[in-house]
Design brief:
It is a single chain. The chain is α/β, with parallel strands linked by helices. The protein has one domain (about 5-310): Ribokinase (UDP-N-acetylmuramoyl-L-alanine:D-glutamate ligase, 3-Layer(aba) Sandwich). It has helices at about 25-35, 50-60, 105-115, 130-140, 160-170, 175-185, 195-205, 245-255, 260-275, 285-295; strands spanning about 5, 10-15, 20, 40-45, 70, 75-85, 90-95, 115-120, 145-150, 170-175, 210, 220, 225-230, 230-235, 300. The two termini are about 30 Å apart. The mean pLDDT is about 90.
């Protein structure tokens, strides 16, 4: 069992049909916990009705709440989620909420110093206090894997937070749109994903760069020159909310277990595809669901530009 910390937002996703608890780091840690790792969420809730309900649901999900802080002034985070014709989500993230001021404590620093993995993003760095806290935790997490699941959200990131995060990360996970935006901001190639990933790992000393391609799978590169492509699965899409976070959880689970880059990406694809068939980001995925999915002969979707990177 590995110890995984996830830092950042716990918030309510207000969907057209329902309201569900989410936030990328929470989705990630929830999914990783269901795979058998010991996972701890570092966040902050408001002392309001939504905060109380969130805390209760976190407990019901089986997660340890020792690093969930409470705020007497700011409300619990919320985000309004809409979907386009292809069921891809769009977000309006409410500012000035509790997770914007996660405090540094000695308990957090001690936990970071011994964790096997620390996952963080950019949204929770939009405010000074939470940004200062994650910077301190990253300094303490000298031996653990540091995963930057960058999750660029409109008006919630800056060049400063991106470059600072890249300097501290071991693994960078992002999607195609985020790769284009990062390439533009950092003035590196973003028209070719292999070139983009090569420049990222070379310039920032990133050990692994993972670019998710929605239903077409994932392209990945490592600092030792390996580049692999793993195709996606053709499934009936309910919504894509949380499928990228599920991929990250599956990838980390296998990576910490000593699996290869390709094997970790393959397992991440499986978990992400299963979540995409469900509504919301935190619907249950049991081992039986994973086993059944793997045993079924599900059609793969191959990106036309990356077939030569398969099985490399």
């Amino acid at each position: 069992m590995k110890t995984i910390l996830a830092f950042g937002e716990v918030l309510w996703d207000i969907l057209p049909s329902c309201t569900v608890l989410g936030g990328a780091p929470f989705n990630f840690v929830y999914r990783a916990n269901s795979l058998g790792d010991k996972d701890l969420m570092i966040s902050r809730l408001g002392r309001d009705e939504l905060g109380r309900k969130a805390h209760e649901q976190i407990i019901r999900s089986g997660l340890d709440t020792r690093f969930i802080q409470w705020d007497d002034e700011l409300p619990t985070g919320t985000v309004e989620v809409g979907f386009d014709e292809q069921n891809n989500p769009d977000y309006f993230i409410v500012p000035h909420v509790a997770y914007d001021r996660i405090e540094t404590t000695q308990e957090l620093l001690d936990a970071a110093s011994t964790a096997d993995c620390l996952c963080f993003g950019t949204l929770s760095q939009r405010a000074a206090e939470s940004r200062k806290t994650i910077e301190r935790l990253l300094e303490e997490a000298a031996t653990g894997l540091k995963l930057l699941d960058i999750n660029l959200r409109k008006e919630c990131y800056s060049l400063e937070t991106i470059t600072s995060s890249l300097e501290k990360a071991d693994v960078l996970k992002l999607n195609e749109a985020e790769a284009r935006e990062i390439g533009r901001m950092l003035n590196i190639s973003h028209h070719s994903l292999p070139e983009f990933c090569t420049q990222i790992v070379d310039k920032w000393s990133i050990k692994q760069c993972l670019v998710t391609l929605a239903e077409k799978g994932v392209f990945a590169a490592s600092g030792d020159g390996r580049q692999v492509y793993v195709p996606g699965y053709k499934v009936k899409l309910a919504d894509s909310l949380g499928s990228g976070d599920a991929f990250a959880a599956g990838f980390v689970h296998k990576t910490l277990g000593g699996e290869s880059l390709a094997a970790a990406c393959e397992f991440g694809n499986v978990i992400g595809a299963i979540v995409a068939t469900q509504t919301g980001a935190t619907a249950a995925v049991r081992q039986a669901d994973i086993d059944r999915f793997v045993q079924e002969d599900i059609e793969r979707i191959v990106h036309p530009g990356f077939g030569n990177f398969m099985n490399s």
